[in-house]
Specification:
With 115 residues, the protein is an alpha/beta fold. It has four helices and five strands; from the N terminus they run ββαβαβαβα. The longest helix has 16 residues.
């Protein structure tokens, strides 16, 4: 599977949709796509991982870095679409209770918009 990232801004909410494997070679691309949203005044950031087939520790570290940025900037950081592999990785590291996780992007938008 080819690695792809699509970043958009909608209703002052940053959305980063990721496809493929997030590993030490691709996690810098994920970081580069997250970073601009922390330089803008956005309400929050949604990271859609529904297309991710595998994530290693460098990918998890990138998500933790995103979470730290968001807390520093007082913005919400929501993960959505966690497949079994990604959820298992977060559970193993006990980060499933640290991140805000929604089932899908619609629910994540609703959480950010207060609906």
């Amino acid at each position: 599977m080819t690695f792809k990232i699509n970043s958009t801004l909608k209703e002052n909410i940053g959305m980063v949709a990721v496809e493929g494997e997030v590993d030490m070679f691709t996690s810098p691309d994920l970081r580069d796509n997250l970073l601009p949203f922390f330089k803008k005044k956005v309400r929050g950031i949604i990271v859609d991982l529904s297309g991710v087939s595998f994530m290693d520790s460098s990918g998890i570290a990138t998500l933790v870095e995103g979470l730290q940025w968001s807390k520093k900037e007082k913005r919400q950081f929501i993960l959505t679409g966690l497949g079994t592999n990604v959820l298992n990785a977060l559970t193993l590291t006990k980060l499933d209770n640290v991140f805000s996780i929604q089932a899908d992007t619609k629910r994540a938008y609703q959480a950010l918009l207060g609906n």
